[in-house]
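Batch manifest, entry 17 of 40.
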Amino acid sequence: MKPDFDPIIENLFQGAAPPYGEAVAKLGFDTLVLCAKENQREDLYPGVEVVLAPGDDDAREHRMMRDMPTWEKAAQVVVERVAAGKKVLVTCIAGLNRSGVVTALAVHQITGWSGEDVVEHIQASRAWPCATTRSPRTCASCLRRLATQADQ
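Output type: structure tokens
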């Protein structure tokens, strides 16, 4: 089984549920972020730091915002690991919604790009878009909301 992930920026990758076992470590990743509430077993991934960031898979903004505090904390860990030169893989089940939000939050912090620019970059980098094709602006909307709150 070929793992489904794509590079987003240097040392940061986004993808679908990773294979169990040592595959993630053998691929050279230092940190694995598990965003799917269905997959929160850090013991299944030996040899890497596992960050648990469970969330619901629902692209409606009000549902995503409910899980946002968990994803913001995970994104901060991602930012710190990428800054330290660590190779990070952010995942959920399909590699779309939840992993897209955490990746986008981290990219926003690292680059300072607007929410829209972050989403466009992830969509161009990943075979699957951030926040699914059902609602491609959801992620950007969440980022705009967070950026507004941070500016206050």
